[in-house]
């Protein structure tokens, strides 16, 4: 071919607009063509598709046009069929379903898919062990060794993943020292309610329709109850008056004796300008005893009062008594994030000397 100032289409530099093929380029093109022809001639016999093949339709390699089933393939197919039948019969016995009913629906799936599923679930390991024990002549020693190595790799991979998950849990600091956090519990409860509302075709504004009668009554009682005072409201006149009524609710008052004492003393309610201001009035002994009893009952009630605290059995015990437990909580709040890595190393044993 004569070079007319243009690049040959088979030249490796044909994409270069400024390239012009010379004698060296044509020589390289001819060498590449001759080498390709030699490769085609060498592999012509191997590239031919066999006209007649003995391939079972249930074989997992049936899609390969160059595969021919051997005794090993038929053995694997028979074992897979037998395993599928045994699994189906076991499931039917557990569920109490007749075999004629479940078999008609489960047999529609292709056998190739069932074989692959069983191989993924561990059937491969079972078959490889059988082959190694029985010494199937169709498998060479290298293939048997390769299967064994694959099994060991799968076991090592699973163990590694489990160790990684455990390591990640230890490295992540817990959100709460005891139990689940309130915000997390509220989020999970909101998700559950949302699923129930979606299944009933409702939105979050209609969440009250899921409440039972008892739950609704408890909510109404809680809403009707006045909130407890906090801050400076504890010392205002209304709060003090309510506390006075609560304390005197169980004290009996003798109105006849009260009226008699009021009539006998014209200045029963003295003012600062009274001449009898500061003078002690006569109080019956039973009234004094009643007041002392009320003070004693109040003191006993204050001593017996204690806030209810949740106790979680799954939490690790790291204290010897309640006081030590309270101290450990304060230490954990202050220095827990700095000592987390040290604790994890001690639990794993990596912080200990060899």
UniProtKB/TrEMBL annotation:
Compartment(s): Nucleus
Major localization listed first in the record, in broad terms: nucleus
Region (Disordered): 88-138
Classification via InterPro entries: mRNA_splic_SYF2 (IPR013260)
UniProt-listed GO biological process terms: mRNA splicing, via spliceosome
Signal peptide: none
Keywords of the record: mRNA processing, mRNA splicing, Nucleus, Spliceosome
Subunit structure: May be part of a spliceosome complex.
Membership in a protein family: Belongs to the SYF2 family.
Protein name: Pre-mRNA-splicing factor SYF2
Organism: Musa acuminata subsp. malaccensis
Lineage of producing organism: Eukaryota, Viridiplantae, Streptophyta, Embryophyta, Tracheophyta
